[in-house]
Design goal:
Length: about 375
């Protein structure tokens, strides 16, 4: 039997614990069904509740503790809700969300993968029926760029105050994220070919390819990193002649995500631009209730990757048991698939979970069901 894989479960705030509870039930179901070598530990931090009791969001050695695990399954961080309780314990976002950014940075989770595929049953926001073909993977650079948190405020509160916020782009991080994008494009083309679902993307010189990478910049205004991204993209594309290349400025990309999202395959964007584009991409694929997200370190096996849905703590509905756990369950499925790199039985379980969640969505998408009902239905499918 494979060495036991250990998951740190961090439910967090708001609807986090509600949707994580359903993910854990699915993991339990899969574990007993397939006798998986899988264990998990639930942590009460990072969270508002922990901060209220301890004056900090998590213990000083939190990252060291989490590093002992193979993966982290995170619910959500932020306003715990309910919003009509004006006396609830509330922290500024910069404090409550810091652990999320600290995990990404501390474990060098340099890839943020956010797939956006409009699955049957998911809400179709675009009227155009070609929306059914939306199937993109947005890859967000997750280690630097606009999120380096360097800068400061000078003469704070004074009329002549100055705020600076640095953006840092390195060739090393640019190369690794762009190469990762091309590798994913190739992988997706292979998977599509196996499923007889081929797609076609034209290159500028008139060839036709089965996959595409679109790199996003704002090089017409932010030229230094924009030019570096463009050059690195051109260089690395030479290693992948089978993958079509495309470049979009981020503002035009927003327009085209709405106008013709089915024309995109893999999209590589900087940290902030990827953040913004993936909220839009989530809506294109059915909304925040179905959008998974993964923060990955593909290069260092000693560093845990972290899996959290794109949605936040949803304080407006927290505590009512009505949050849709679908995004969390798709995220858990991707986590298992990721862990399948070490233990293939987990990869198969991840696929099974994905199919169960997608099957449930196809049959019941659009129905009013509470969190637990959706979890029950998916566990039943897994047991069937
Ligand atoms: C996300 C979130 C975070 C981000 C926030 C909460 C700091 O919006 O994961 O997309 O900007 O990365
Ligand atoms: Mn975001």
């Amino acid at each position: 039997m494979a060495q036991t894989t250990r998951i740190a479960v961090t439910p967090g705030d708001g609807i986090g614990p509600e949707v994580v509870a359903e993910a854990v039930r699915c993991l339990e179901t899969l574990r007993s069904k397939h006798n998986l070598a899988l264990e998990w530990t639930r942590f009460p931090w990072p969270s508002h509740a922990w901060h209220e009791d301890h004056g900090e969001s998590w213990p000083a050695d939190a990252l060291d503790q989490l590093q002992q695990y193979d993966a982290i399954l995170l619910g959500a961080l932020g306003d715990p809700g309910p919003i009509d309780d004006s006396s609830r314990y509330l922290l500024p976002d910069s404090i409550s969300l810091a652990p999320l950014l600290d995990m990404r940075k501390g474990f060098d989770q340099w890839v943020c993968e956010r797939p956006a595929r409009l699955l049957p049953g998911a809400r179709q926001y675009l009227k155009d029926d070609r929306a059914k073909d939306i199937d993109m993977l947005v890859i967000r650079e997750n280690s630097e760029g606009e999120y380096v948190s360097q800068g400061g405020r000078l003469r704070q509160g004074k009329p002549d105050e100055v705020a600076t916020q640095m953006e840092v782009f390195t060739r090393r991080a640019t190369e690794r994220i762009i190469r990762y994008g091309f590798e994913q494009a190739r992988r997706r083309a292979t998977e599509r070919a196996q499923a007889s679902r081929t797609r076609n993307f034209r290159t500028l010189d008139g060839r036709s390819c089965e996959s595409q990478v679109c790199v996003i910049t704002k090089r017409n205004a932010l030229r230094y990193w924009g030019d570096m991204y463009t050059e690195v993209f051109e260089e690395i594309s030479q290693e992948f002649p089978d993958v079509a290349t495309h470049h979009e400025l981020v503002d035009a990309a927003c327009m085209k995500f709405v106008q013709c999202p089915w024309a995109f395959d893999v999209v590589v964007a900087s940290n902030l631009q990827g953040d913004i584009l993936t909220d839009l991409a989530a809506v294109l694929s059915g909304g925040m209730g179905v959008a998974p997200s993964c923060n990955l370190n593909p290069t260092d096996p000693d560093m845990p990757s972290m899996f959290e849905p794109t949605h936040g703590s949803a304080p407006d509905i927290a505590g009512q048991g009505i949050a849709d756990p679908t995004a969390m369950l798709f995220t858990a499925a991707r986590m298992l698939e990721w862990l399948g790199r070490k233990d293939p039985t987990l990869g198969l379980a991840g696929k099974e979970l994905f199919d169960a969640v997608a099957g449930d969505l196809a049959e019941h998408g659009g129905e009013q069901r509470d969190t637990r009902q959706i979890g029950d239905a998916i566990c039943d499918r897994l047991q069937a």
